Amino acid sequence: MHNFELVKPTTIADAVAALSGEDAQALGGGQTLIPTMKQRLAAPTTLVSTTGISEMQGVCVDDAGRVCIGGATTHATVAAEAAAHYPGLAALAGGIGDPAVRNRGTIGGSLANNDPSACYPSAALGSGATIVTNSREIAADDFFQGMFETALEEGEIITEVKFPVPQASNYQKFLQPASRFALVGVFVARYADGVRVAVTGASESGVFRWSEAEAALSDSFAASAIGGLSVPADGMIGDLHGTPEYRAHLIGVMTGRAVAAAG
Amino acid sequence: MTTVSMTVNGKSVSGDVEGRTLLSAFLREGQGLTGTHVGCDTSQCGSCVVHVNGAAVKSCTLFALEADGAEVTTIEGMANADGSLGTIQQAFQDYHGLQCGFCTPGMVMSAAALLKDNPKPTEAEVRHYLEGNICRCTGYHNIVKAIMAASGQDVVAVAAE
Protein backbone atom coordinates (compact mmCIF):
# COMPACT_ATOMS: atom_id res chain seq x y z
CA MET A 1 0.00 0.00 0.00
CA HIS A 2 1.15 3.52 -0.73
CA ASN A 3 2.07 5.57 2.29
CA PHE A 4 -0.08 8.40 3.66
CA GLU A 5 -0.42 10.60 6.66
CA LEU A 6 -2.90 9.45 9.32
CA VAL A 7 -4.75 12.26 11.10
CA LYS A 8 -6.82 11.59 14.21
CA PRO A 9 -9.09 14.55 14.94
CA THR A 10 -11.27 14.59 18.06
CA THR A 11 -14.01 16.91 16.74
CA ILE A 12 -16.15 16.94 13.59
CA ALA A 13 -14.91 20.46 12.79
CA ASP A 14 -11.27 19.33 12.87
CA ALA A 15 -12.10 16.31 10.72
CA VAL A 16 -13.82 18.46 8.10
CA ALA A 17 -10.84 20.83 8.05
CA ALA A 18 -8.44 17.92 7.58
CA LEU A 19 -10.59 16.51 4.77
CA SER A 20 -10.35 19.75 2.79
CA GLY A 21 -6.80 18.85 1.78
CA GLU A 22 -6.05 17.32 -1.59
CA ASP A 23 -6.56 13.52 -1.79
CA ALA A 24 -7.71 13.33 1.80
CA GLN A 25 -10.18 10.58 2.67
CA ALA A 26 -12.20 9.73 5.74
CA LEU A 27 -11.35 6.47 7.53
CA GLY A 28 -14.05 4.75 9.58
CA GLY A 29 -13.20 1.29 10.88
CA GLY A 30 -11.19 0.58 7.74
CA GLN A 31 -12.65 -2.88 7.18
CA THR A 32 -13.22 -2.08 3.51
CA LEU A 33 -10.87 0.84 2.92
CA ILE A 34 -7.71 -0.83 4.27
CA PRO A 35 -8.07 -3.96 2.07
CA THR A 36 -8.83 -1.61 -0.86
CA MET A 37 -5.66 0.37 -0.17
CA LYS A 38 -3.62 -2.84 0.06
CA GLN A 39 -4.73 -3.61 -3.49
CA ARG A 40 -3.77 -0.05 -4.46
CA LEU A 41 -7.32 0.59 -5.64
CA ALA A 42 -7.27 3.62 -3.33
CA ALA A 43 -4.24 5.73 -2.52
CA PRO A 44 -5.17 8.78 -0.45
CA THR A 45 -2.36 11.03 0.72
CA THR A 46 -4.14 11.78 4.00
CA LEU A 47 -6.47 9.54 5.97
CA VAL A 48 -8.72 11.23 8.49
CA SER A 49 -9.77 8.77 11.17
CA THR A 50 -13.25 9.35 12.59
CA THR A 51 -13.08 6.79 15.38
CA GLY A 52 -11.63 9.25 17.91
CA ILE A 53 -14.50 11.73 17.52
CA SER A 54 -16.66 11.25 20.61
CA GLU A 55 -19.59 13.29 19.21
CA MET A 56 -19.88 10.65 16.43
CA GLN A 57 -20.13 7.71 18.83
CA GLY A 58 -23.03 5.88 20.37
CA VAL A 59 -26.73 5.07 20.13
CA CYS A 60 -29.54 7.23 21.54
CA VAL A 61 -33.24 7.97 21.02
CA ASP A 62 -34.31 11.52 20.09
CA ASP A 63 -37.50 13.39 21.06
CA ALA A 64 -39.25 12.11 17.92
CA GLY A 65 -38.55 8.52 18.99
CA ARG A 66 -35.98 7.95 16.30
CA VAL A 67 -32.93 5.79 17.01
CA CYS A 68 -29.92 8.03 16.37
CA ILE A 69 -26.58 6.38 15.74
CA GLY A 70 -23.29 8.28 15.57
CA GLY A 71 -21.48 7.84 12.26
CA ALA A 72 -18.41 6.31 13.88
CA THR A 73 -20.36 3.75 15.92
CA THR A 74 -19.26 0.17 15.35
CA HIS A 75 -21.56 -2.63 14.23
CA ALA A 76 -20.92 -4.41 17.55
CA THR A 77 -22.08 -1.36 19.51
CA VAL A 78 -25.23 -1.02 17.39
CA ALA A 79 -25.96 -4.73 17.81
CA ALA A 80 -25.72 -4.36 21.60
CA GLU A 81 -27.15 -0.90 22.25
CA ALA A 82 -29.92 -0.63 19.63
CA ALA A 83 -31.45 -4.00 20.52
CA ALA A 84 -33.88 -2.56 23.07
CA HIS A 85 -35.05 0.22 20.72
CA TYR A 86 -34.93 -1.24 17.21
CA PRO A 87 -34.36 -5.01 17.31
CA GLY A 88 -34.51 -5.47 13.52
CA LEU A 89 -31.69 -2.99 13.03
CA ALA A 90 -29.62 -4.44 15.88
CA ALA A 91 -29.97 -7.94 14.46
CA LEU A 92 -28.79 -6.73 11.05
CA ALA A 93 -25.74 -5.07 12.61
CA GLY A 94 -24.98 -8.24 14.56
CA GLY A 95 -24.86 -10.26 11.35
CA ILE A 96 -22.40 -8.12 9.40
CA GLY A 97 -19.05 -9.77 8.61
CA ASP A 98 -17.70 -11.57 11.67
CA PRO A 99 -17.13 -10.54 15.32
CA ALA A 100 -13.71 -8.95 14.72
CA VAL A 101 -15.00 -6.98 11.74
CA ARG A 102 -18.00 -5.80 13.77
CA ASN A 103 -15.66 -4.49 16.45
CA ARG A 104 -14.07 -2.10 13.93
CA GLY A 105 -16.49 -1.42 11.07
CA THR A 106 -18.75 1.63 11.41
CA ILE A 107 -22.21 2.55 10.17
CA GLY A 108 -20.97 5.77 8.58
CA GLY A 109 -18.21 3.96 6.73
CA SER A 110 -20.58 1.31 5.44
CA LEU A 111 -23.19 3.79 4.20
CA ALA A 112 -20.61 6.11 2.63
CA ASN A 113 -19.05 3.18 0.76
CA ASN A 114 -22.48 1.91 -0.42
CA ASP A 115 -21.19 -1.50 -1.41
CA PRO A 116 -23.97 -3.10 -3.51
CA SER A 117 -23.85 -6.18 -1.26
CA ALA A 118 -23.51 -4.47 2.14
CA CYS A 119 -26.23 -4.95 4.76
CA TYR A 120 -26.58 -1.43 6.24
CA PRO A 121 -27.82 0.36 3.09
CA SER A 122 -30.93 -1.86 3.14
CA ALA A 123 -31.69 -0.88 6.75
CA ALA A 124 -31.26 2.82 6.04
CA LEU A 125 -33.37 2.72 2.88
CA GLY A 126 -35.89 0.28 4.34
CA SER A 127 -36.39 2.52 7.38
CA GLY A 128 -36.54 5.79 5.47
CA ALA A 129 -33.64 6.92 7.63
CA THR A 130 -32.10 10.37 7.57
CA ILE A 131 -28.36 10.55 6.89
CA VAL A 132 -26.87 13.50 8.79
CA THR A 133 -23.57 14.92 7.58
CA ASN A 134 -21.37 17.75 8.77
CA SER A 135 -23.32 20.12 6.49
CA ARG A 136 -26.88 18.81 5.89
CA GLU A 137 -29.48 16.10 6.29
CA ILE A 138 -30.15 13.70 3.41
CA ALA A 139 -33.16 11.37 3.12
CA ALA A 140 -32.14 7.76 2.48
CA ASP A 141 -34.30 7.82 -0.68
CA ASP A 142 -31.98 10.51 -2.07
CA PHE A 143 -28.72 9.23 -0.57
CA PHE A 144 -28.07 5.97 -2.45
CA GLN A 145 -27.31 6.74 -6.08
CA GLY A 146 -26.00 3.46 -7.51
CA MET A 147 -23.20 0.99 -6.93
CA PHE A 148 -20.63 2.66 -4.62
CA GLU A 149 -22.28 6.02 -5.39
CA THR A 150 -23.93 8.29 -2.82
CA ALA A 151 -25.08 11.89 -2.52
CA LEU A 152 -22.03 12.72 -0.38
CA GLU A 153 -19.86 15.57 -1.69
CA GLU A 154 -16.09 15.54 -1.54
CA GLY A 155 -14.95 15.91 2.06
CA GLU A 156 -18.45 15.42 3.50
CA ILE A 157 -18.76 12.90 6.34
CA ILE A 158 -21.69 11.06 7.88
CA THR A 159 -21.93 12.22 11.47
CA GLU A 160 -25.21 10.52 12.44
CA VAL A 161 -27.98 8.35 11.06
CA LYS A 162 -31.56 8.74 12.35
CA PHE A 163 -33.88 5.73 12.05
CA PRO A 164 -37.66 6.01 12.51
CA VAL A 165 -38.61 2.89 14.47
CA PRO A 166 -41.13 0.61 12.72
CA GLN A 167 -43.90 -1.44 14.33
CA ALA A 168 -42.23 -4.59 13.02
CA SER A 169 -39.12 -5.29 11.00
CA ASN A 170 -36.75 -8.02 9.92
CA TYR A 171 -33.67 -8.50 7.77
CA GLN A 172 -33.01 -11.72 5.92
CA LYS A 173 -29.59 -12.25 4.41
CA PHE A 174 -28.75 -15.05 2.00
CA LEU A 175 -25.13 -15.27 2.96
CA GLN A 176 -22.32 -15.46 0.44
CA PRO A 177 -20.30 -17.67 2.76
CA ALA A 178 -16.79 -16.71 1.67
CA SER A 179 -17.21 -12.94 1.90
CA ARG A 180 -20.03 -12.95 4.47
CA PHE A 181 -21.69 -10.20 2.42
CA ALA A 182 -25.27 -10.61 1.22
CA LEU A 183 -25.76 -12.58 -1.98
CA VAL A 184 -29.22 -11.12 -1.55
CA GLY A 185 -30.49 -9.36 1.55
CA VAL A 186 -33.96 -7.94 2.16
CA PHE A 187 -34.96 -5.52 4.91
CA VAL A 188 -38.70 -5.25 5.59
CA ALA A 189 -40.13 -2.58 7.90
CA ARG A 190 -43.80 -2.03 8.71
CA TYR A 191 -44.77 1.52 9.65
CA ALA A 192 -48.18 2.97 10.47
CA ASP A 193 -48.28 4.61 7.03
CA GLY A 194 -47.07 1.61 5.02
CA VAL A 195 -44.46 -1.06 4.52
CA ARG A 196 -40.98 -0.47 3.12
CA VAL A 197 -38.93 -3.19 1.44
CA ALA A 198 -35.26 -2.58 0.60
CA VAL A 199 -33.12 -5.06 -1.32
CA THR A 200 -29.32 -5.28 -1.22
CA GLY A 201 -26.86 -7.60 -2.94
CA ALA A 202 -29.03 -8.10 -6.01
CA SER A 203 -29.01 -5.09 -8.30
CA GLU A 204 -26.23 -3.65 -10.43
CA SER A 205 -27.56 -0.27 -9.28
CA GLY A 206 -27.04 -1.07 -5.60
CA VAL A 207 -29.69 -1.06 -2.90
CA PHE A 208 -33.26 -0.41 -4.11
CA ARG A 209 -36.87 -0.43 -2.91
CA TRP A 210 -39.18 -3.13 -4.23
CA SER A 211 -42.25 -0.96 -4.64
CA GLU A 212 -44.65 -3.71 -5.85
CA ALA A 213 -43.97 -5.69 -2.69
CA GLU A 214 -44.34 -2.56 -0.56
CA ALA A 215 -47.82 -1.95 -2.03
CA ALA A 216 -48.91 -5.57 -1.57
CA LEU A 217 -47.55 -5.78 1.98
CA SER A 218 -49.11 -2.46 2.95
CA ASP A 219 -52.48 -4.02 2.06
CA SER A 220 -51.75 -7.31 3.79
CA PHE A 221 -48.62 -7.88 5.86
CA ALA A 222 -48.22 -11.59 5.16
CA ALA A 223 -45.75 -13.59 3.09
CA SER A 224 -48.65 -14.83 0.96
CA ALA A 225 -49.33 -11.26 -0.16
CA ILE A 226 -46.24 -11.29 -2.38
CA GLY A 227 -46.74 -14.84 -3.65
CA GLY A 228 -47.71 -13.70 -7.12
CA LEU A 229 -45.01 -11.06 -7.47
CA SER A 230 -41.64 -11.48 -9.13
CA VAL A 231 -38.69 -9.25 -9.87
CA PRO A 232 -37.33 -9.16 -13.43
CA ALA A 233 -33.75 -10.49 -13.77
CA ASP A 234 -32.88 -7.51 -15.94
CA GLY A 235 -30.24 -5.38 -14.18
CA MET A 236 -29.51 -7.94 -11.47
CA ILE A 237 -25.90 -8.87 -10.65
CA GLY A 238 -24.58 -11.99 -12.34
CA ASP A 239 -21.31 -13.54 -11.16
CA LEU A 240 -19.87 -16.94 -10.25
CA HIS A 241 -21.96 -16.97 -7.07
CA GLY A 242 -25.31 -16.58 -8.80
CA THR A 243 -27.00 -15.64 -12.04
CA PRO A 244 -29.28 -12.59 -12.38
CA GLU A 245 -32.27 -14.97 -12.52
CA TYR A 246 -31.18 -16.67 -9.29
CA ARG A 247 -30.78 -13.37 -7.47
CA ALA A 248 -34.14 -12.14 -8.76
CA HIS A 249 -35.76 -15.32 -7.45
CA LEU A 250 -34.04 -14.95 -4.07
CA ILE A 251 -35.51 -11.47 -3.62
CA GLY A 252 -39.00 -12.95 -3.42
CA VAL A 253 -37.86 -15.78 -1.15
CA MET A 254 -35.98 -13.55 1.27
CA THR A 255 -38.78 -10.97 1.34
CA GLY A 256 -41.25 -13.69 2.28
CA ARG A 257 -38.97 -14.94 5.03
CA ALA A 258 -38.47 -11.43 6.38
CA VAL A 259 -42.21 -10.79 6.51
CA ALA A 260 -42.82 -14.12 8.24
CA ALA A 261 -40.06 -13.44 10.77
CA ALA A 262 -41.21 -9.86 11.42
CA GLY A 263 -44.65 -11.22 12.34
CA MET B 1 7.64 8.42 10.73
CA THR B 2 5.51 8.93 13.79
CA THR B 3 6.05 7.52 17.24
CA VAL B 4 3.33 5.17 18.42
CA SER B 5 2.98 4.00 22.02
CA MET B 6 0.76 1.31 23.44
CA THR B 7 0.62 -1.32 26.14
CA VAL B 8 1.22 -4.80 24.79
CA ASN B 9 0.60 -7.71 27.15
CA GLY B 10 0.95 -5.35 30.11
CA LYS B 11 4.22 -3.82 28.96
CA SER B 12 4.56 -0.26 27.65
CA VAL B 13 6.11 -0.22 24.19
CA SER B 14 6.71 2.42 21.55
CA GLY B 15 8.23 2.64 18.11
CA ASP B 16 8.44 4.76 14.98
CA VAL B 17 5.95 3.77 12.30
CA GLU B 18 4.65 5.00 8.96
CA GLY B 19 1.00 5.83 8.50
CA ARG B 20 0.56 2.61 6.55
CA THR B 21 2.20 0.36 9.16
CA LEU B 22 -0.36 -2.24 10.17
CA LEU B 23 -0.75 -3.26 13.80
CA SER B 24 0.21 -6.81 12.77
CA ALA B 25 3.49 -5.53 11.31
CA PHE B 26 4.20 -3.38 14.37
CA LEU B 27 3.70 -6.37 16.65
CA ARG B 28 5.64 -8.87 14.54
CA GLU B 29 8.44 -6.79 13.07
CA GLY B 30 8.62 -3.95 15.56
CA GLN B 31 8.14 -5.91 18.77
CA GLY B 32 9.25 -9.38 17.68
CA LEU B 33 5.90 -10.81 18.77
CA THR B 34 5.61 -13.27 15.90
CA GLY B 35 2.89 -15.32 17.56
CA THR B 36 0.36 -13.12 15.80
CA HIS B 37 0.17 -14.66 12.34
CA VAL B 38 -0.69 -13.03 9.04
CA GLY B 39 -2.44 -15.61 6.89
CA CYS B 40 -4.41 -13.87 4.18
CA ASP B 41 -3.71 -10.18 4.82
CA THR B 42 -7.22 -9.50 3.47
CA SER B 43 -9.14 -9.73 6.79
CA GLN B 44 -10.70 -13.05 5.86
CA CYS B 45 -8.78 -15.69 7.83
CA GLY B 46 -8.56 -14.36 11.39
CA SER B 47 -5.11 -15.75 12.24
CA CYS B 48 -4.03 -12.18 13.12
CA VAL B 49 -6.74 -11.58 15.75
CA VAL B 50 -5.55 -9.68 18.83
CA HIS B 51 -7.45 -7.76 21.49
CA VAL B 52 -7.40 -3.95 21.40
CA ASN B 53 -8.92 -2.44 24.52
CA GLY B 54 -10.57 -5.79 25.17
CA ALA B 55 -12.17 -6.20 21.74
CA ALA B 56 -11.09 -8.86 19.24
CA VAL B 57 -9.89 -7.22 16.03
CA LYS B 58 -7.97 -8.27 12.94
CA SER B 59 -4.55 -6.71 13.40
CA CYS B 60 -3.88 -6.84 9.63
CA THR B 61 -6.81 -4.46 9.10
CA LEU B 62 -5.92 -1.78 11.61
CA PHE B 63 -3.12 0.75 11.41
CA ALA B 64 -0.65 0.76 14.29
CA LEU B 65 -1.33 4.47 14.80
CA GLU B 66 -5.02 3.69 15.35
CA ALA B 67 -3.97 1.65 18.38
CA ASP B 68 -1.94 4.52 19.84
CA GLY B 69 -2.50 4.54 23.61
CA ALA B 70 -4.44 1.27 23.53
CA GLU B 71 -4.15 -1.86 25.65
CA VAL B 72 -3.25 -4.68 23.30
CA THR B 73 -3.20 -8.38 24.13
CA THR B 74 -1.60 -10.92 21.80
CA ILE B 75 -1.23 -14.69 21.96
CA GLU B 76 2.03 -14.15 23.87
CA GLY B 77 -0.07 -12.61 26.64
CA MET B 78 -2.29 -15.66 27.04
CA ALA B 79 0.14 -17.87 28.97
CA ASN B 80 0.07 -17.98 32.77
CA ALA B 81 2.55 -15.86 34.71
CA ASP B 82 4.80 -18.89 35.28
CA GLY B 83 4.97 -19.52 31.54
CA SER B 84 2.64 -22.52 31.55
CA LEU B 85 -0.17 -22.65 29.05
CA GLY B 86 -3.31 -20.63 29.82
CA THR B 87 -6.65 -22.39 30.18
CA ILE B 88 -7.70 -22.00 26.55
CA GLN B 89 -4.24 -22.90 25.24
CA GLN B 90 -4.14 -26.01 27.42
CA ALA B 91 -7.58 -27.04 26.20
CA PHE B 92 -6.40 -26.72 22.58
CA GLN B 93 -3.54 -29.08 23.43
CA ASP B 94 -5.73 -31.51 25.37
CA TYR B 95 -8.35 -31.75 22.63
CA HIS B 96 -5.97 -31.62 19.66
CA GLY B 97 -7.46 -28.32 18.55
CA LEU B 98 -4.65 -27.75 16.07
CA GLN B 99 -2.68 -29.56 13.46
CA CYS B 100 -0.38 -27.17 11.61
CA GLY B 101 -1.06 -24.48 14.20
CA PHE B 102 -1.05 -21.51 11.86
CA CYS B 103 -4.58 -20.37 12.70
CA THR B 104 -4.26 -21.20 16.40
CA PRO B 105 -3.20 -17.78 17.73
CA GLY B 106 -6.28 -16.20 16.16
CA MET B 107 -8.49 -19.07 17.31
CA VAL B 108 -7.32 -18.70 20.90
CA MET B 109 -7.77 -14.91 20.85
CA SER B 110 -11.26 -15.18 19.37
CA ALA B 111 -12.14 -17.90 21.89
CA ALA B 112 -10.95 -15.67 24.74
CA ALA B 113 -13.09 -12.79 23.48
CA LEU B 114 -16.13 -15.08 23.21
CA LEU B 115 -15.71 -16.54 26.71
CA LYS B 116 -15.26 -13.08 28.22
CA ASP B 117 -18.72 -12.02 26.96
CA ASN B 118 -20.36 -15.44 27.05
CA PRO B 119 -18.67 -17.70 29.64
CA LYS B 120 -20.88 -20.73 28.91
CA PRO B 121 -21.57 -20.69 25.16
CA THR B 122 -23.47 -23.43 23.38
CA GLU B 123 -21.70 -25.38 20.68
CA ALA B 124 -23.69 -23.45 18.07
CA GLU B 125 -22.62 -20.14 19.59
CA VAL B 126 -18.97 -21.21 19.48
CA ARG B 127 -19.25 -22.16 15.83
CA HIS B 128 -21.05 -18.95 14.98
CA TYR B 129 -18.48 -16.82 16.80
CA LEU B 130 -15.60 -18.46 14.92
CA GLU B 131 -16.97 -17.60 11.48
CA GLY B 132 -14.16 -15.10 10.98
CA ASN B 133 -11.43 -17.63 11.83
CA ILE B 134 -10.49 -20.10 9.13
CA CYS B 135 -8.73 -23.42 9.83
CA ARG B 136 -7.73 -25.61 6.90
CA CYS B 137 -6.60 -28.64 8.94
CA THR B 138 -8.94 -29.65 11.70
CA GLY B 139 -12.43 -29.36 10.30
CA TYR B 140 -13.12 -27.26 13.44
CA HIS B 141 -14.54 -30.09 15.58
CA ASN B 142 -11.60 -30.29 17.96
CA ILE B 143 -11.36 -26.50 18.14
CA VAL B 144 -14.99 -26.37 19.21
CA LYS B 145 -14.38 -29.16 21.73
CA ALA B 146 -11.39 -27.31 23.15
CA ILE B 147 -13.38 -24.11 23.62
CA MET B 148 -16.27 -25.99 25.23
CA ALA B 149 -13.75 -27.61 27.60
CA ALA B 150 -12.06 -24.28 28.33
CA SER B 151 -15.46 -22.90 29.34
CA GLY B 152 -15.73 -25.65 31.94
CA GLN B 153 -18.54 -27.46 30.14
CA ASP B 154 -18.86 -31.09 29.24
CA VAL B 155 -17.41 -31.98 25.89
CA VAL B 156 -19.80 -34.25 24.09
CA ALA B 157 -19.51 -35.54 20.57
CA VAL B 158 -20.03 -32.44 18.47
CA ALA B 159 -22.41 -32.30 15.58
CA ALA B 160 -20.92 -32.80 12.16
CA GLU B 161 -22.14 -29.87 10.11
Can you tell me about this structure?
The complex is a heterodimer of chains A (263) and B (161). Chain A is an alpha+beta fold and 263 residues long. Chain A folds into two domains: 5-163, 2-Layer Sandwich (Uridine Diphospho-n-acetylenolpyruvylglucosamine Reductase, domain 3), CATH 3.30.465.10; 168-262, CO dehydrogenase flavoprotein, C-terminal domain (Enolase-like, domain 1), CATH 3.30.390.50. Chain A has helices spanning 12-19, 33-38, 75-81, 87-93, 99-102, 107-113, 120-127, 140-143, 211-219, 244-262; strands spanning 5-7, 24-27, 46-49, 59-61, 67-70, 130-133, 137-139, 158-163, 168-175, 182-191, 194-200, 208-209. In chain A, 52% of the residues are buried. The model of chain A has no long low-confidence stretch (mean pLDDT 97). Chain B has two domains: 2-77, Ubiquitin-like (UB roll); 87-150, DNA polymerase, domain 1 (Orthogonal Bundle). Chain B has helices at residues 23-30, 87-94, 104-117, 123-129, 141-150; strands at residues 2-8, 11-17, 49-52, 55-58, 71-73. In chain B, strands 2-1-5-3-4 form a five-stranded mixed β-sheet, with helices on both faces. The interface between A and B is medium-sized, with 26 and 28 residues.
